[in-house]
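Convert to structure. Protein one:
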Amino acid sequence: MTQSDRMYVAGEIVPMAEARVSALDASLQLGAGLFETLRTYGRRPFRLREHLARLRASGEALRILVQETDAAIADAIDRLVEANGVPDARVRLTATRGPLDEGMEDDIGPPATLLVTAGPMTPYPEAFYQHGAAVIVSNMRINETDPTVYHKTTGYLANLLALREAHRGRAAEALRFNMKNHLAEGAISNVFLVADGRLLTPPVDDGLLAGITRAAVLEVAAEIGVPAEQRSLAIHDLLDADEVFLTNSIMEVLPVTRVEAREIGSGEPGPVTRRLAEAYRDLVARETGGA
């Protein structure tokens, strides 16, 4: 057994080979589950409280109810990171709905089964941060009237198909528009534009998941005096932007310098993107003890 081969399952840290969830679990059968992905820096999770608040809010909305306290989950992550020897870890929390035949029509339902994994970070290529990444525009639309798009559910296949489409085109990400032709999000990220020095990002009700890193970037933008606005964005806003970047917990702030064949701005990461990336790293350092 190698390090990172242990995981947390419903109160215990066990070898992955011994981890068990029922074959009749509704998460497996119906995609009725939730997940969160976050990073630890020097063993300290970044914005764990916010990730758990989102997990619990989604659980209340979709009746996937995690019973463990925040303190118990934090302790499980810490023990797992130590057991696997990965102080700078990629952590995933998964909450499954439970047995298929228990409470699927009830407002409450059975307690969720919580799974936690912690493995080594595989960073994005440094060239993306220095010179920018390419993205495509996916043909797969987001239906902003679907309530599940506002939650991080285990029904994630459409996102993965869009991402696979991007990778086939030698791009880092696929951007998705909604049924009203408004920019929503990336397959695995939130999207920001910079136009005339102003930070723009789609509003949540255009069909996107409210990312924890997205919120942190809006926070640091206010701190360093970058004006920001959440508003609906069309394809011309994207293509005519001075700068574009993506955010999620793993990539942090990732510059985009090409949308399909269209070069964005100067073709290099712009000054606002660089300022926000630095401010975000400073925020992480402050909250994780300088990691």
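Protein two, convert as well:
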Amino acid sequence: MQEYETLRQLVEAAADDVEKASGGNKAAGTRVRKSMQEIKSAAQVVRQKILESRSTPAAQG
């Protein structure tokens, strides 16, 4: 599922900034907050795709 791969890549991309923000880097904290919004949106898309696949007749067979 491409949407999940996108979500995974966003999380991996934020990892360095999360570490820097934990060390007190304020700019990295700002980048993490922005990344978290993108991750939230991507997670919602994955959730919607999963719900769509559950409701299709092909997935029930």
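The chain has a mean pLDDT of 93. The chain has three helices and no strands.
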